[in-house]
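Hi everyone, sorry if this is the wrong subforum. Our group has a chain we'd like a structural model of before ordering constructs, and none of us has done structure prediction before. Sequence below.
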Amino acid sequence: MLRIGPIQLDLPVVQAALSGNSDVPMRLLARRFGAPYALHEVALDKLVVRPGKFQTRLLRLPEEDHPVGGQLMGAVPEQFAEAAVLMAERGFDVVDINFGCPVKKVVGRQRGGFLLSAPQTAIEIIKRVRDAVPPHVPVTLKMRRGMDDGVESERDFFRIFDAAIEHGLAAITVHGRTVKQRYVGPSDWGFLARVKKHAGKHTVLGSGDLFLAEDVVRMMSETGVDGVTVARGCIGNPWIFADARRMLAGEPAPPPPSIPEQGRVIREHYDIALGFYGQGAALTLLRRVAIRYADLHPLTKRVRDAFIRAKDADDWLRVLDEWYDPNRDWPPPRRKTGPGRLIAAGARE
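Answer:
Right subforum, don't worry. Here is the predicted structure as tokens:
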């Protein structure tokens, strides 16, 4: 169980905000596999408050897409708070503050992870957002473990972390890499354990290097965090939520999804996207997701290339018919254990 303010979740595993990925179709599919809570891809505050296509799409939430968190990024406390209020008014169940994005252009504009090096501004954003958003709407925070590995960076981290608790934030997600690390090197789970011990009863979620259900169970066991947010590990792999639920209930690790099952889910993802976006946009957006689905296929490169070459809906469906044919004798599917790291079914590292 996991509680985020008044929201009670029956599984301590949630889908993280993923730029360019955690849109409505991906979130709905994750929910069908047991994710009890999902976050919208991070949104820039000034685009949230500006009327236009982005605002319209952002604030379009299907009834079945709840509870849902809206993650915000920005640099100006007043504008950040204005966007947070709008998201709460338009139906987001949680407002999430992003102090974790390590992308260079984001950090260069003093947003995202940069704010870990500017604790005064970061704390002002936290205070203004919590004061502006209605009390019944939880406010949460996403952080990395600091700008770098320096002593001052860690001191800034805990200054911001403690201020978030003091100002009543409902939960804090901590990614075990620094901003300067970006996505290189291991996530420091030992740091997550220290943070949870420091936080006491306050809700802490862990993030980083969660690619299998086994990783989810191990992080919770080794660090004591209250829950986890699965990020890159769920792109093209919604099965991770159902698998984690089984393993946290004491069942053994399930086998990877069969080739026909993979094809069925990709087709389901396509159908949801088609209904939400229309054909042209659905194919454009799904092409990059399909590449990640292909990681689980035993003939990854050939399947990936086939998806890339698909120019229209007919091509797309032909790829599914050919490469996920339930009547063919396929080699065993693969398991994704990290970016670019794949092993055969049945193997263990």
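For your construct planning: The chain has two domains: 2-248, 259-335. Confidence is low (pLDDT under 50) at residues 342-349.
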